[in-house]
Amino acid sequence: MVPARTPPPAPARRPALPTAAGLLCALVLSGVAAGLIGIAMAHLLEGFEWLFYGVEEGSLPQRVAAAPAWRRIAAPALGGALAGALWWWERSTGGVVSVEEVVADSGAPGPGSPSRRMGVLRPFGDAVLQVLTVGAGNSVGREGAPRLAAGALALRLATILRVDRDWVPVLVASAAGAGLAAMYNAPLGGAAYAVEIVMLTGMRRRGVLLAVPLSALATAVSWWGSGGRASLAMPAAPLTAQALLACLLAVPVAALLGWLAARAWAWCKAHRLPDSWGLPLAIGGAGLATGATSLWLPELPGNGRDAFQGALDSSASAAALAALLGVVVLKPLLTGATLGAGATGGLLAPSFALGASGGAAVAVGLGLAGMSPSIPAAALMGAGVTLAVTQRAPVFGAVFVWEITRGPAWILPPLLVACWAACRITRPSPS
Description:
Elements: H1 19-53, H2 60-66, H3 69-92, H4 99-105, H5 114-117, H6 121-135, H7 144-160, H8 168-184, H9 187-198, H10 204-226, H11 241-270, H12 279-293, H13 305-312, H14 318-341, H15 348-368, H16 375-391, H17 394-405, H18 412-426
């Protein structure tokens, strides 16, 4: 009788961390990484602004104003053409998987799933291109860069630490919000962005458990580079009857601007030029238009952060009113042209720049009529309402603009109510 053979021993498996321990490690490492990414993106933006405009210090409008006229026109065009050429190559060789695709994937491990295809190098490369585009002066948001890079790194960490599949999309969404929080020094806004915009409905309750600490950690890490300073300087805005009146009148104006901008930008994205050899020419052409308009308004180039600051600092004068109305008209047009040409970029900063300029214009008009409204308060109210409407996210819209300006406490409750009401009124009717 032949003795039974002993089966060979199974290959040794790498021991897995307990579910809670692996998730906690991934959360901490993702938060630290998101904070460092925020620092890196901020320095990269400064470097690109210096490279394209040749001015070492100052805000982007100050650099634009100090640069010679030919450089003000050429910088966005050259930056757009360069980014367009690189995007053409990137998209023709496979493109980039977005954070939203990974979150919608729900962690399914199929061989062709977004979670498997995302990688790290391509998201980081695309993030650099987005920052390059904004640093050159093109009119799109830069918030997509840190959220894409932070989300990709969080996905890689979740894979290495073997985080439970059900928690992977929640972690990726939370890391994306943390990247935004680190970039703008806005932990509550970053968490609200992750929960209200990036996450799917079924994951939002447990998502808060990751989004809040992750954004807080990323923001704390980013203070190493920012010193904890607010993203924008908010002038004094005491509570008065005329300040409330200006805020109240700014709400419908900002809601209408947000509704119109959202529809226009959605149309531009839907009719975007194809990814062909014409991509660098198209994005460069949109940049040329942005550069030409900067000869009149230095606040127009870039993502819109400086236009928001300009609205907060506006005086009650006819010249200030003309500048604000110029931003209201031209900023959404230039952003739509840049997106329609094929650029990748966010809409957060263009949205709050549009709303802030509209709200400030209302207050400046009241000031010219002999009243004493609070222009900064009206600008803040307009920024939050327009951002909430374009993103369909009332809590995020209110909290984010209040946090990046460190606005007065009295304005937050009416701002939340205004954002909620504006989103309810402007929401698409069911078909």
